[in-house]
Design brief:
By secondary structure, the chain is α/β, with parallel strands linked by helices. It is built from 10 helices and 13 strands. It has a 5-stranded mixed beta sheet with strand order 3-2-1-4-8. Strands 11-10-9-12-13 form a 5-stranded mixed beta sheet. The structure holds zinc ion. Residues 163, 173, 175, 177, 180, 182 line the site of zinc ion.
Length: 314
């Protein structure tokens, strides 16, 4: 038997056929056509599943279940996509619409939660019952896995890892609150701070690295500047590591997960980011050296994590 995992994004719908132990056997994607209605986009996803089944030369009866990772809040029990940020879904009856096209049962979960589950199924968190995954991208997303299952809270909205306060009254966050982790630990925050340094420190290497064009600054720019010994770059990265560290310490003190994974663009810095981060986190974590330590590592499945995690929902 196979499973289908779908990653519903604002730009693309990616889907794959997943076999035993989360092995991704086939993957394909289509544009989301976000101008369509919620029902039409759902129908598009259902037809896409039928196409994939056809392309892989298997039959509908070979599909055990279909899972969809959605950018919003999902009520899996009732098969409803309650709300999405950038797409027109509002209390959309996904499972019911799918049943008009395909007989396999449909499961729903938040896309970041699916990615966290994917890493447990066959990524860096494999073998760990309790883990937290943080995605450091445009925003800060993630998921909490407890005893191998996604923790969603009573209203399906838990795991908004980016929206814990680390600087009360600090930078304004997209959620309307000030000082959230997302406003300090996202790639967007790194770019904001680098642009400030570009404007305030004419001698900084940041200017040179982006060829004097402030719009060419990306999240890697301050890391490159630090690597070259630049003071402004070093300040930005060191502050970033402290802020991210404060968030991670909060998660550890509350959940004591066996492992915390970092994914998303910023995690590509690898050990250059992880090593000082671990040092900071373990200096201030509750229990210090008297308790076994949470591991802090990079996620390994990239964009496939969402498809694999969605497929493994049950
Ligand atoms: Zn926030």
């Amino acid at each position: 038997m196979y499973r289908i995992g779908i990653d519903l994004g604002g730009t693309n719908i990616s889907a794959g056929i997943v076999g035993d132990e989360g092995r991704l056997l086939y993957k394909s994607s289509i544009p989301t056509e976000a101008e369509l209605s919620d029902v039409q986009i759902t129908e598009l996803m259902a037809k896409f599943c039928l196409n994939i089944i056809n392309n892989c030369d298997i039959s509908e009866q070979d599909i055990e279940s279909i899972g969809i990772g959605c950018p919003g809040v999902c009520d899996d029990k009732n098969g409803i996509l309650v709300y999405t940020v950038n797409l027109p879904f509002r209390n959309t009856e996904i499972a019911k619409i799918f049943s008009g096209f395909i007989s396999a049962p449909v499961h729903l979960a938040n896309d970041a939660n699916c990615a966290a589950l994917g890493e447990v199924v066959c990524g860096t968190a494999k073998g760990y019952g309790n883990s937290i995954t943080l995605t450091l991208g445009t925003g800060v997303g993630g998921g909490i896995i407890i005893n191998g299952k996604i923790y969603t809270g009573f209203n399906h909205a838990a795991g908004e890892m980016g929206h814990i306060t680390i600087h009360a009254g600090g930078e304004l966050c997209g959620c309307g609150r000030k000082g959230c982790l997302e406003a300090y630990a996202s790639a967007t925050a790194l770019i904001r701070e680098s642009k400030r340094a570009f404007n305030e420190n004419p001698d900084s290497l940041i200017r040179e690295l982006c060829g004097g064009d402030i719009n060419k600054i990306n999240a890697k720019t301050p890391f490159d500047a630090k690597r070259a010994g630049d003071k402004a770059g070093t300040d930005i990265v060191d502050r970033y590591i402290q802020d991210l560290g404060e968030g991670i310490i909060n998660y550890i003190n509350v959940f004591q997960p066996e492992i915390i994974l970092l994914g998303g663009g910023v995690s590509k810095e690898g050990e250059y980011l992880l090593e000082p981060l671990r040092k900071y986190v373990f200096t201030y974590t509750y229990g210090h050296d008297f308790l076994p330590r949470t591991k802090i590592e990079c996620a390994m499945l990239g964009n496939d994590a969402g498809i694999i995690g969605a497929a493994m929902l049950d």
